[in-house]
Amino acid sequence: MTLDLQPGQKLARGVSRHLRGLGFVSVEEFVPARGLRVDVMALGPKGELWVIECKSSRADFLSDAKWQGYLDWCDRYFWAVDVDFPTDLLPPDTGLIISDAYDAEIIRMAPEDKLPPARRKAMIQKFATHAARRLQALRDPGAALFDDSGDEG
Amino acid sequence: MTLDLQPGQKLARGVSRHLRGLGFVSVEEFVPARGLRVDVMALGPKGELWVIECKSSRADFLSDAKWQGYLDWCDRYFWAVDVDFPTDLLPPDTGLIISDAYDAEIIRMAPEDKLPPARRKAMIQKFATHAARRLQALRDPGAALFDDSGDEG
Fold it and tell me: Within a domain: residue B144?
C-alpha cells in the first residue's frame, strides 16, 4: 500500500498518524479558499486548525511560492520533511515535523496565531464537508453523480 | 457492492445520495452523545443538521425505543423507509423519505426545531472528527494504532 504513495503523500500519512495520537484528525488536499490547497489540514479536540505542508525535497520547497498564503487559514503552520531534508532552508517562525510513511515527530512547535472565530467556524464546516465527501467517494463511488456542484470541498 | 449491504444500509446509501443533491454531506452510525447512535447524520451547506433513521421493516420500527432521544440532536428528524413500508405507523410530526439503495425522495419535510448554537457547533466538530477518522481508517488501516482514545467519534 505504501508503495503506491508519492513521497509527499508518505510524509502526510506519517504526519496524520502522529497527530492522531495527539487527538487531532486530518484530511489531505484541503482547499481553504479558491486557489489554495494545503497538504494536510488537522483539526484538534478544541477546534484547533493546523496546516502541515509536506516537502519531499529541496526543490519541492523552493518551488512553493504560495505557503505564506496558508498562514491566514490556520492557528499553527508546520513543515513536514524527511530526515534528510536540509532544514536550515525553512523559515524559523514555522513549525517543523520530521516524518516518514509510518510515523512523525514534532521537532519545533509552530507559533500560535489564532483564527478569528467566524473563520474557524467556516473552516470546521468545510473540513467536515471535505471529509464526508471523500469518505462517501470511497464507500459509494456512484454517489458522485448526485453531487450538487463541481466544488471539491 | 450493494449485495454486501444490510437492508438498513441500503436505505442509508440512497438517502445519502439524494441529500448530496441538496448540498448535504452525511455520515452513518454517528454518535451524538453516549448511548445514542443515529443511522444517518447529514450536514447542510448552512450548518443544518438532519437525523435520518432507516427502518427496513415494521418490526425494525416497533423495536426502536430510542428515537425520541435523537430529536434533541438535530434541526430536522426523518424516517427513511422503502416503498413497501406501512408509513401509517410513523408519527405525523416527523419527516418521511422513501429510499432504496440507489436514490431517495423526501415525501414529507420534517418540521424544524433549531439546535442551540453551542450544540450545533459541538455537533459539527464531532461530525468532522467522525468523518475524518472513518476516512483515515479506509485509507490507512494502520493509523488506528495511533489513536489517542477508545472513542469512536
Answer: no
By residue range, what is the domain housing residue A25? Answer: 7-139
Q: Do the domain assignments include residue B109?
A: yes
pLDDT tens, residue by residue, B113-139? 999 999 999 999 999 999 999 999 999
Q: ipTM value of the model?
A: 0.94
Model pTM score: 0.94
| CATH code, A63 | 3.40.1350
Q: How confident is the model at residue A153 (pLDDT cuts 50, 70, 90)?
A: very low
Which segments of chain B does DSSP mark as H helices, in order? 7-21, 58-62, 117-139
Nearest C-alpha of chain B: how many angstroms from A89? Answer: 30
Q: Is the pLDDT of residue B152 over 60?
A: no
Asked if A17 and B143 come within 8 Å (Cβ–Cβ), the reply is yes
Contacts of B50 by beta carbon, 8 Å cutoff, 6+ apart? B19, B24, B41, B42, B44, B74, B75, B76, B77, B78, B95, B110
pLDDT digits (tens, 9 = 90+) for A30-46: 999 999 999 999 999 99
Q: For residue B91, is it within any domain?
A: yes
Q: Classify residue B145: in a domain, yes or no.
A: no
Minimal Cβ distance to A125: which of B20, B27, B47: B47
Number of domains in chain B: 1
Please state, in angstroms and rounded to a whole number, the distance separating the CA atoms of residues A84 and B127: 37
Taking an 8 Å cut-off on Cβ atoms, the answer to whether B135 and A138 are in contact is yes
Check A22 against B148: CB less than 8 A apart.
yes
Chain B contact set for A135 (CB, 8 A)? 27, 131, 134-135, 138
CA distance B74 to B49: 5
B4, B46, B129, B133, best to mutate vs chain A, most A CBs in 10 Å: B129
